[in-house]
Design brief:
With 409 residues, the chain is of the alpha/beta class. It has 15 helices and 15 strands. Strand 7 (128-133), helix 5 and strand 8 form a beta-alpha-beta unit. Helix 10 packs parallel to helix 15 (389-407).
């Protein structure tokens, strides 16, 4: 037996935490047991337990191939069709970082929706997942209603998600979203506390921050899962810290709300997490202390399903029916991979869906956590590592410290 190459460790006060990124298993050991573990002591008390948890592997086991096999198997067997549908490219906010700058305003018509429904129906695979997107998807509620009605008429089973700024929500609309749109999850972005947020969004009416917070409260009350996404860069980092403190006072420990933080990705910059480790670790540290996630190790489940753009059953559908693999590329018509009337251009889609595994990735012990990262970043020849060793170790350290300090009380 040998220790798994996918083991990641952190240490605190004579205790050690070991996470296996391949099997999503985790264990905490004292000094004595850790010594047995790293020396693969076959007479140790927990030797068989380490094998069962995947912390040990057979000498002949090729763990890299095992991961790639599991990833491919799950993609082929269990991946559901996923359609990110832009009801409109119009938006009621004016975020400076929006990747849709320069795109002409398109709003989906019923004729275009009929072609999209025919495209989905032709696949003859259900259930499907739809993610309502934009622009701001709620600027075209009528077309969401229409698509959902037509899918039901054709007996296509579906559930839906939504990415929205949350400004246009209300109780009546949320009730319809649950029952008519089969909405299960919603993501709402906050860019800072009131002053910073409203300066970024530039809504036409005052009180936007308070309005969106009230709508988040309504979603939680009506049992819709909410991911509050915090967008940050080096310019708003301190304000995001204040926002996390505020959100913790409202939502800490609530089971159907989760707060995640993501760096803004700029087209002209290196977006590798390793280049911003200090900032990212600062953010994750306060998020962990805020208790806005029920189990921080859920962040480290093996990412078998890879970047959605890699999936043959995933498409971004524009209001006019054009098909893309990634929403970051919709400003460039040359990047489209087909349309809902004429179908898919295999030569263009294969650029996204054919494996191109770098030697650096295949030997990395974080591979199961990122599964080759962002296809958009890779295709555009950027560094696309979206997780770093230091970042993972800091989260493990926090988990271990919390455990040890609790036991020692």
């Amino acid at each position: 037996m040998k220790t798994s190459k996918y083991n990641i460790t952190a240490h605190y006060q004579n205790h050690h935490i070991i996470l296996n990124s391949l099997h999503h298993t985790c264990i905490i050991l004292n000094n004595h047991d850790y010594h047995d573990f790293i020396n693969v002591n076959q007479n140790g008390e927990y030797y068989q337990r380490y094998i069962d948890l995947g912390l040990y592997a057979n000498e002949t086991t090729d763990e890299e191939k095992l991961f790639l096999y599991n990833s491919r198997k799950l993609i082929e067997e269990k991946t559901r069709p996923f359609y990110r549908i832009l009801t409109t490219t119009d938006c009621n906010a004016k975020c400076f970082y929006c990747y849709e700058k320069g795109i002409s305003t398109q709003t989906m018509s019923k004729a275009s929706a009929d072609n999209i429904i025919a495209f989905i129906n032709k696949e003859q695979i259900d259930p499907i997942t739809i993610e309502w997107f934009g622009g701001e998807p709620l600027l075209n509620i009528e077309i969401i209603d229409y698509i959902c009605d037509q899918l039901r008429n054709k007996h296509i089973k579906f559930n839906s998600k939504m990415i929205t700024n949350g400004y246009l929500l209300n109780r009546e609309l949320i009730d319809k979203a649950k029952n008519k749109w089969a909405l299960q999850y919603i993501q709402i972005t906050l860019d800072g506390t009131k002053k910073v947020y409203e300066n970024v969004k530039k809504f036409s009416a005052p009180g936007a921050f308070e309005r969106v917070i009230r709508n988040i409260d309504l979603l939680i009350e009506m049992n819709i899962s909410v991911d509050i996404r915090l967008n940050y860069d080096k310019y708003n980092i301190d304000d995001i810290m204040n926002l996390i403190t505020y959100l913790s006072s409202k939502y800490s420990g609530k089971p159907n709300v989760f707060v995640s933080a993501r760096r803004l990705i700029y087209d002209d910059k290196n977006n590798d997490l390793i280049t911003t480790e200090e900032t990212d670790c600062k953010i994750i540290n306060i998020l962990l202390q805020s208790n806005l996630s029920t189990d921080i190790l859920d962040r480290f489940r093996p990412r078998y399903f890879v970047c959605p753009a890699y999936n043959l059953k995933h498409y971004v559908i524009m209001p006019n029916g054009d098909l893309y693999k990634c929403s970051k590329d919709i400003a460039n018509p040359l990047e489209k991979v087909g349309d809902v009337i004429n179908g898919i251009d295999a030569e263009k889609e294969c650029l996204w869906c054919s494996p191109n595994i770098s030697p650096e990735c295949i030997t990395c012990n974080l591979l199961p956590l990122c599964n080759f990262g962002c296809r958009h970043e890779e295709i555009h020849n950027k560094k696309y590592c979206m997780v770093s060793q230091k970042y993972v170790e800091q989260i493990l350290f926090y988990k271990l410290k919390t455990f040890v300090d609790t036991v020692n009380k």
